[in-house]
Design a protein that fits this description.
Rossmann fold; six-stranded mixed β-sheet; 12 strands
Length: 328
């Protein structure tokens, strides 16, 4: 099972520019979480801070008892082995075929025999649907295949936490749909904690157990997916509906005069909360996601803290797949 990631009071700046400050959230073990936000809000910076590749000025990231911000570098290096990281472009070596690209972490960080490496690599290649392409170079395959190869490489060390940096970048809607299903299928098979950074609304609507959003240097919200999907927060509703009217502008933030003009224009009124579509299920033949039961128990513990719209949406999901002891 994946392990919990606890983020406390995280603040990151570059020079005099604050990227975000006082970010606090918990990635529940084995669940799939998505971090949303307009371009330029520091989503990738957050991902790199979680794994210890960037050093925030304040705060902690606790992973298996190790603080990825403040612990000695040798402890951070060891804890980093718990992670698998999927980069936007796959980050494959252009001169290596897919097999050698995927085998690279095993050859670099373990002393396994080549026969064992081949077994593991071919298992991961099969898991992401690339059997038959292992001899091809990255330049000989499509962008979607490179994404899947990058994901396979992130899986070869059996990570307990998987971080995906905009996995949909450069993919058309159909390939994005396949990738969304692949992420759910992987979670069903390995029960890893997953954090996906994206601004893709289809992924946000169908994949995660939990959602968060960064805007104006702050974490707007983080919690069960229904909390954001039914949110009355103007920036959340604008982002999820893809409308121009709202706090988000071309330069991320609109000035007060522009917002005031929009409020006077009834044609730009805030949209109704979106219809919540069912979360993706694992493909036929795969085991059910173990995270589903853990998430339900966790959501029930926070039930009284959730707003009515979120509770109603969660109850609708519970009725679809009822479990003993849950509210209906």
């Amino acid at each position: 099972m994946g392990i919990e990631v606890v983020v406390e009071g995280l603040t990151k700046s570059f020079g005099t520019q604050t990227v975000w400050h006082d970010v606090t959230l918990t990635l529940p073990p084995g669940e799939v979480s998505v971090m949303l936000g307009p371009s330029g809000t520091g989503k990738t910076v957050f991902l790199k801070s979680v794994i210890g590749l960037l050093k925030p000025e304040r705060g902690r990231v606790l992973v298996g008892g190790v603080d990825m911000v403040n612990s000695p570098e040798r402890d951070i290096y060891e804890a980093r082995k718990l992670f698998g990281l999927m980069f936007q472009d796959g980050a494959l070596f252009g001169s290596m075929n897919l097999f050698d690209n995927i085998a690279f972490p095993l050859r670099e960080h373990t002393r396994k025999k080549e026969s064992e490496i081949r077994r593991i690599v071919m298992e991961r290649i099969d898991m992401v649907g690339l059997v038959g392409s292992e001899g091809k170079l990255p330049g000989e395959i499509s962008g979607g295949m490179r994404k899947r190869a990058g994901l396979a490489r992130a899986l070869v060390l059996d990570p307990q936490i998987i971080l995906c940096d905009e996995p949909d970048s450069g993919l058309d809607p159909v390939r994005t749909s396949y990738l969304s299903q692949l992420l759910i299928d992987l979670n069903a098979q390995i029960d890893a904690t997953m954090l996906i950074v994206t601004h893709n609304l289809d992924i946000a609507a169908t994949v995660p157990d939990n959602m968060g959003m960064l805007f104006r240097r702050e974490l707007v919200a983080f919690g069960p997916r229904e909390l954001l999907l039914t949110s009355e927060e103007p920036v959340v509703r604008q982002f999820l509906s893809g409308r121009r009217a709202g706090p988000i502008g071309m330069s991320e933030e609109k000035d007060e005069a522009t917002l005031a003009r929009e409020q006077l224009n009834p044609g730009d009124a805030a949209p109704a909360p979106p219809r919540i579509v069912p979360q993706l299920e694992p493909s036929p033949g795969l085991p059910p996601r173990q995270a589903v039961q853990r998430r339900r128990a966790r959501v029930l513990e926070m039930w009284d803290q959730l707003p009515p719209h979120a509770r109603q949406a969660i109850q609708s999901g519970f009725r679809a797949v009822p479990v003993r002891g849950e509210p209906v």
